[in-house]
Amino acid sequence: MTEPVSKMPIDAKVKPALTSLLYQLADDDFILAYRGSEWLGLAPHIEEDVAFSSISQDTMGHAAMFYQLLEDLGEGNVDSLAHARKAAERRNAVLLEVVNGPGHYLSSAQYDWAFAVVRNYFYIQAKKIRLDSLKNSLYQPLAEVALKVNMELYYHLLHWKTWFIQLMQAGGEARTRMEAAIRKVLADFEGVITLGPLAKDMAEHGLIEPEDVLKQRWLLTMKPVFESINLAVSEADLAMKNGNGRIGEHTADLDAALTTLSEVYNINPAASW
Amino acid sequence: MSEALFFQEMTEEQKYEQFMKRINAGEKIEADDWMPEDYRMTLIKLISMHGISEIMGALPEKEWVPKAPSLKRKLGIMAKVQDEMGHGQLLLRVAEDLMKPLGKTREDIMQDLFSGRLKFHNVFHMEAPTWGDAGLIGWLVDGAAIITQTNMLNASYGPYARALKRICAEEVFHAQHGEAIIMALAEGTEEQNAMVQDAVNRWWEALLMFFGPGDASTTGTSKQDTTIKYRIRTKTNEDLRQDFFTKYIPRVLSLGLKLPDETMHFDQDQELWVYRQPDWNKFKDIIKNNGPKSQERLGLRRTAYETNKWVREALNTAN
Fold it and tell me: From which residue to which does any coiled coil extend (chain B) (predicted)?
């Protein structure tokens, strides 16, 4: 089952950078899909509930593909990678673990739709840029997964961009709420952009392009969108206010999320479910 | 054209007669066709309740979506609950068309839900405290839904019949998804086995109630005669409950599970399953939104609806 499927021998020098990259990709999608699943039944209208849950499902599927690449490299089975690792071992960006808003997903949830739109739109755009780069990764299994994931991202991006522009253009309360959400997202967006301490190695081994190239590409792609809705965003606005998830720094929100998402798994991790 | 003029000249009774002739001949009624007021109101009540039940039905399972114990199960239950929301959407669209001549919209449906005027299905008022419940809902609740919905696949109202066709096709996958969860638990550890048996015990009465009372004498009112007359459905509530027993009792027993009704047996002479009646007073209470989880789930939806008010307002400005 865990027979290695990589088509090129993994150089011991490449492996740390490769696994580090894969953990980031898998953990980012996994935790954001989890946050998306908490929104179920609570979206602004029923049509959006259907669309958003479809996107979250795709995103969870992407996480599963990245965890599978880690399993193939001997990191452990996909379900223990997804459910059993503690917060300090997780490499997702802090922004993606933050709660959807006040309340619990089963009672008195007062989730923030502006935050959902901005977080998802900005992240999906960064993910798209990352995956476009990964299509040319020298690690062939990753390049193949990137190709598959990319096909779905077109729709995710279109979806969130449409919401973003529409709510920004609505003015009034919507605009105020959206601007607050933008400030909140940008304050931790550097944490999404960064590829962590091994970023240089990743680029040197041809796994992905350099971090700064991807960052500039994101800024360049967003620029006309920001201009069209009369919003000033500069590179200096991107920060890592709540910690660097790529080195295992996380918030209490992640601890709570992990307890919930592994509740049944932890009844008996060895059992077949 | 001449036929249309002729139709306009008909008395209400003649129109009714022609309508009944059409549906008895197996013809489909479409949204813009003439229909008796009673037919329209029956459909609105039935379809908006069905639609809103699909949507409220996402809530008991919602608890288990983030908690599903493996990536495969997480993906499976996410897909399943998404389908349910999609069914809700599809059905509400059908109901909206029927409500249009009355000047009513989706907003009225939501407000009627919150005020308790629009009921949702009894099963979705129940608790789902373990992963076993998540499996059981897919397996037996969706299994029961397939039986009631199949009964309406040839409904005289075309838009509803077409929506049901698609819904039933997807429900079959849901029942398989639920059955797979239950099988894994039934074949698993003692603790996992106990989880399934607990879920069966907990859901049994609600599953009996699922099909509704046998006749109006039980709860004071029953729409089944009207829906049969208008060829929306063919079988009675009791017929459907018997079909459910025939299909699922052997399956439940084959997994080594016990039925929480020791009187349950198949009577060869009557060719009927004999069983203990659920407490129909409890049923009446549940659908009045006094079930164990009624208020909590309505509250969750109401809070979300209020919290997102600014979004709907922004969309109205933009349009």
Answer: none
